[in-house]
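Intended use. Records like the one below are meant for learning the mapping from a protein sequence to its folded structure. Do not use them to infer anything beyond what is encoded.
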Amino acid sequence: MNKSWEKEAVVFDEIYEGRGLVGKIPLLGPFIQRGIIERHNRALAFLQACGAQTILDLGCGVGRFAVAAARHGVTVYGYDISAPAIAQAQAAARQAGVSDRCHFLTADLLTVAFPPADAWFDLGCLHYLPDPAQVVQKLTHVPHLFSCLPLKGHWLSPLHYVYRTLLRGQKYLEFSEADIRRLLAAYPNLQIDRSGMVYYVTTVVAV
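Structure written out for the chain above:
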């Protein structure tokens, strides 16, 4: 993955609190902030719905979701390519008193041998990978998933292309519902919900 994520994985977390460059942009900043807070809350709701006890957090960043999940008694394995982000995640887990349930690793997801788990969570990682299918293939032993994937052709697409691809040199993928079903074909029992500029994808949980 592009090495620009070494620092950006840390900076990205500022959006949750409306800080940093994005937070200073009128209208756009609050819009993006609301979106990532919704993503976080949906992930926690699915965590409780699926009853997972052990989860994998792909692109965990500074551990915001991982620590929240661990507070619910869940064991979390978090992965991020950014060593500074992983260091902050470890510190956050210690401060929250859940470091015994949080296992963080600095790694490229393409090189990870994922342990057994009940669910994997992608709160904004797979669409930055050159080939997310390679990672998904290594996760098919995990029965449940939560993924947040950008909608193909939404109104922010040109801005994402300019910023991510042209300026940052980062891969950035967008998806149709058909693309998602192809990517996650190993999980035929999917629920795909569109909200704003993203799709929320989960396995269906029996009630």
